[in-house]
Amino acid sequence: MLESTTSEDPDSKYENSADVEQQYKLIEKAYDEFNNGNYEQCLETLDELEKCNGTNNKLEHNRAVAKFYKSGCKDHVTLLKSINENTGSIDRSSPISSKLSYSPIARFNMAVIYYHRHMYETAINTLTPLVDQVEDLEEHMAALVCTFMLRLLLVTNQLRKAAAFLEMLQSPEHKSSLYLNRDTLAGEEASACETATANHENFQRAYKFLAIQTCVMNRKPIVVAEDGSAEFSSLKAHQYYIMKDFQMAAKQLKKVNEIGATGELSDMLNTCIANNMGVIHLRVRHYAIAAKFFQDAITFDKRIAANMRNVSLYQMSTARTCEILYNLGIAMLHLRRPKEAYNCFFVPLKSYHSNPRLWFRISEACIMAHEMKMLEEDSKPMITSVVDTGGRKTFFLKPTNNVVYSLDKDALESGPNLHFAVLALRNALTLTTYYKNAFEMTEDDELPTEREKENWRNVKDNNFCNPSRPISKNSLNNMLCAIYAAYSYVSLRLGDYVSALKMAQELLKAEKLSDAHRLLAHMYAGEALLMLDKLEDARPHFEPTFVTNLNAFDFETKDWRVKSLDAAQNVVRYNLAVVMALQGDFELCRNILSSCTHPIVAAKVLSLKTYLDIRMGKCA
């Protein structure tokens, strides 16, 4: 965006009216040449203007913008550097009226650059001073600022804040050309455009689209009128998805595909359709189909990001590799392909390193890879050979590989492993605990408080897991329980029994603990106490009484080895038998083993019976 190059210094004087008239003609000429795409002539006109009136910050800013467009909107680095040099170092808290601060247009242009570079928080911080003094801006500039801020709030998943900001813009007290009543929002004439490139002719339509999108994302009842554009059709599909009408959402996306697009937008639209279809299939547990859609989305996205250094700034913002790989990683986890999931999650980790759910997903991939190795080992015979020496048989058992907790370079090998799982779970636990405290302090319910109603800036969104939607308190508690369980398990496998016991005890203290997690907490706590040679303390965790009260539905999980209540009871009884054997009560141990009939513990029961026979002298 260009800005007026007339001097605002009251001390500046012109020699005569002819000079003033000539300068205004040059300004109008440069403006027309810029709008017509004649950037070379525009730069020449700006040079003539500099000879007449001298240089100033606005002239340098306009020259930088013209050069940026001349480069095909690719050299945004030079533009950003030029804006910084001409306006001084940024002070986001300084008022826009200060001579040392950015002019509104220069600051707005900076925010646009940051937005397209996926630096959303920086863009919001840059734009906030303009929003704070929006009443002092020109009507056209105020409309652009408000529209763009609404877009930034939506893209950062600050949905409640976006709704409050929209309500402020719609209030009668707010004098703005952006005022729209609800009937206008649902009107058939509504259409969408790209907010970041909106000018004085189309920002009203962009704002209308974003206003409807805000209502949809906040689950407010509103009619999304289709106007034949891909944007509105996609928004309609999103509304169906939020309403859990997945079949209609898929049909609506097919309409978007039929609308199609040409030129630079085709790959972006195909990426969007493929990713959203994958999300729908992921939601209905068609994981293989979802993975195929996500892989197609990555293929389309690669065409956009193939040469990121040589694409326009606006194309740069359409690349969504991180988000798509995040979705693909989840699909791969459900398909029990941990190595692929691990590789997928590592890419978005660089951008969303403060997302506790992402760290937990990586740990799940590491744990799953370890479990698959264990299953492969368990499939091998326990007795490798038998040697008959002098009428006595000697049994040779398969070796056991115990993983020891270590932070050596050898331990931190590439690929999914338990050592990296510990680091990931530590990060996930730290972040989740911090966010839980912040959640409880900022929001007790979904309704806005009086303080939030007074100012939209006071509204808090629990968007701790970007790029996902804001998380609910119940989901946060469930994630914390899952982290405790996984942390305890990994610590047991690595021989860190103190940490395993601590995590299991924390899990038992959790609110609204599911029966499956309660079982795991008792199992892990009991095993940790066994390994710490605290048999008396371990025994209460293996009492079969608590298992009879478990909900069988919690064990109906496709990928979990304990898939029924009977299997869970057998696991608990087997562990209790182990405690009895270690305490020397072999008869009671044998009686308990006689009730362990489930295939999940069959091999372990046979091994323990053999051990009892040896200890009781019953082996020939």
Q: What would you say this structure looks like, in words?
A:
This is CCR4-NOT transcription complex subunit 10. By secondary structure, the chain is mainly alpha-helical. 61% of the residues lie in helices and 2% in strands. It is built from 27 helices and 2 strands. A hairpin with a 2-residue loop joins β1 and β2. α2 packs antiparallel against α3 and α16 runs antiparallel to α17. The protein is elongated and about 120 Å long. The relative contact order is 0.04.
Lay out the secondary structure.
Elements: H1 17-35, H2 39-53, H3 57-70, H4 76-87, H5 104-116, H6 120-132, H7 139-155, H8 159-170, H9 182-185, H10 203-217, H11 230-242, H12 246-259, H13 265-283, H14 287-305, H15 313-316, H16 321-334, H17 338-349, H18 356-378, E1 383-389, E2 392-397, H19 418-442, H20 450-454, H21 473-493, H22 497-508, H23 515-531, H24 535-538, H25 565-582, H26 586-593, H27 602-615
Helix pairs in contact: 1-2, 2-3, 3-4, 5-6, 5-7, 6-7, 7-8, 7-10, 8-10, 10-11, 11-12, 12-13, 13-14, 14-16, 16-17, 16-18, 17-18, 18-19, 18-21, 19-21, 21-22, 21-23, 22-23, 23-25, 25-26
Number of DSSP-assigned strands: 2
Strand order of the largest sheet: 1-2
The radius of gyration over CA amounts to 32 Å
Mean pLDDT: 80
Q: Main β-sheet, in a few words?
A: 2 strands, antiparallel
Strand content: under 5%
Give the overall shape, derived from the CA principal axes: elongated
Structural class: mainly alpha
Helix and strand element order: HHHHHHHHHHHHHHHHHHEEHHHHHHHHH
Helix content: 55-70%
